[in-house]
Specification:
The protein is an alpha/beta fold and about 280 residues long. The chain contains eleven helices and twelve strands. The structure holds NADPH dihydro-nicotinamide-adenine-dinucleotide phosphate. Pathway: Metabolic intermediate biosynthesis; chorismate biosynthesis; chorismate from D-erythrose 4-phosphate and phosphoenolpyruvate: step 4/7.
């Protein structure tokens, strides 16, 4: 049976094994998928040992995505640009690194019938998650993408990195410089929700046609999505679909089969609400 793992620290909370086992059941694929706790100074050895013992692929979550990039023999363009790898495949003695987070987000938005083409998009945050979604978002041909971050220099750095792909559509600023903006889509890619906070953006950024997305998810609406709803946003969406979507893309890379995202998402959502 082909073996897969997710590496992270902490890793107990990871839902990836449940998601991939559900994908495997629904597509009749015989696989084993487990979680493995690793350490920064052990990660590379752990990955190599797993592949040496016959492992076929692995997902990588915080804090190892940059290390996974460095140990990959070959990288996709989207992984190179994101400077992070969340999907490793082992083929003929070589480690292939990819990043499926961005496509997971875009597919989740499309599944909610959110139109990205020609839209005016605000991304809050300039960490690894924000960087990972820029290329897949640009590929959807938005009219403008503004990256706003608490530390403005990090947003500027991303704009610079994506300069040759962005056709001058990408802009960087701080939250204070958003006074005059109105956006079709606002994506919260900060980790503020994890500490019960949300980025201090002007309420005028949200209109009754704005879709607000938070990469963080939980049994209840995140603080950002609660606030966005109060400001009259057209739709609020959390990041559970992005999680399942990135997993589906990894599964497809490994097994060459497209699993059904919707049914797994429904099960996870139900499990989360009964755990309340
Ligand atoms: P990083 O640590 O790389 O970046 C964190 C970002 O959040 C930075 O831009 C930081 O700003 C900003 N930030 C943190 N706290 C605050 C605050 N109180 N107010 C305003 N900005 C704040 O994290 P990642 O980019 O890797 O992840 C971001 C979030 O996305 C995480 O919560 C993660 O769980 C989630 N995520 C969800 C995924 C999914 O599948 N649903 C996939 C990947 C990530 P500054 O630069 O100024 O410090």
């Amino acid at each position: 049976m082909d073996k897969y793992l997710v590496f992270g620290n902490p890793i107990k909370q990871s839902r990836s094994p449940n998601i991939h086992r559900a994908f495997a059941d629904s597509t009749n694929q015989l696989i084993e998928y487990d979680r493995q706790l690793s350490q920064v100074d052990q990660f590379e050895n752990d990955v190599k040992a797993f592949f040496a013992q016959g492992g076929k692929g692995a997902n990588v979550t915080a804090p190892f995505k940059e290390q996974a990039l460095l140990l990959s023999d070959k990288l996709t363009d989207r992984a190179k640009l994101a400077e992070a790898v969340n999907t490793l495949s082992y083929i003929d003695g070589k480690i292939y690194g990819d990043n499926t987070d961005g496509i997971g987000l875009v597919q989740d938005l499309l599944r909610h019938n959110v139109v990205l083409k020609s839209s005016n998009i605000l991304i809050l945050g300039a960490g690894g998650a924000a960087k990972g979604v820029i290329l897949p978002i640009l590929e959807q041909e938005p009219v403008r993408v503004v990256i706003a971050n608490r530390t403005v220099s990090k947003a500027e750095k991303i704009c610079h990195q994506f300069d040759s792909f962005s056709d001058k559509k990408l802009h960087a600023c701080g939250f204070d410089n958003l006074q005059d903006g109105r956006f079709d889509i606002i994506i919260n890619a900060t980790s503020a929700s994890l500490s019960g906070q949300f980025p201090a953006i002007p309420s005028s950024n949200i209109t009754d046609s704005t879709v607000c997305y938070d990469m963080v998810y939980g049994a209840t609406l995140t603080p950002f999505l609660q606030w966005a709803e109060q400001q009259g946003a057209a739709k609020v969406i959390d990041g559970l679909g992005m999680l399942v979507g990135q997993a589906a893309e990894s599964f497809n890379i490994w097994r060459k089969v497209n699993p059904d995202v919707e049914s797994v998402l429904k099960t996870l959502r139900a499990e989360m609400s009964t755990a309340l």
